[in-house]
Amino acid sequence: MKIVSFKKKPLLIFGLVCFLAGVLLTIYGPVLLSLLRKGTGLSLGAAASSSQKSNDADSPVPPKVNNQANVVLPAKSEDQANANEEQKRAWEHEEELLRDVQNILKKDPVVLKSDIEKDKQAHVEVEKKKEEESKLEKVIEPVHSEGGQAGEGVPSDQQTKERQDFVRNMMKHAWGGYKQYGWGANEVRPVSKKGHSAGIFGSGNSGATIIDAIDTLYIMGLSKEYEEAREWIALSFNFNPTGDVSVFETNIRFIGGLLSIYALTGDKLFRVKAEDVARKVLPAFNTNTGIPKSLINLKTMNTKNYPWAAGGSSILSEFGTLQLELDYLSHVSGDPVFREKVDKINKHIRSIKTDTNMYTNYLNPNTGKWGSAHYSVGGLGDSFYEYLLKGWLLHSQTDTDQREMYDAAASAIKEKLVQKKENLVYVAEMRGNRLTHKMDHLACFVGGMFALGGYYNVHQNKGSTAVDKAKNEEFIKLGADVTNTCHESYTRTATKIGPDSFHFEGNNLATPTKANEKQYLLRPEVVESYFVLWRTTHDPKYREWGWEAAQAIERHCKKEAGYSGIRDVTNVNTGVDDVQQSFFLAETLKYLYLLFSDDSLIPLDHWVFNTEAHPIPILPS
Ligand code: DMJ
Question: Which of 55, 61, 529, 577 pairs with 404 at a CA distance of 20 to 30 A?
Answer without folding.
Answer: 529
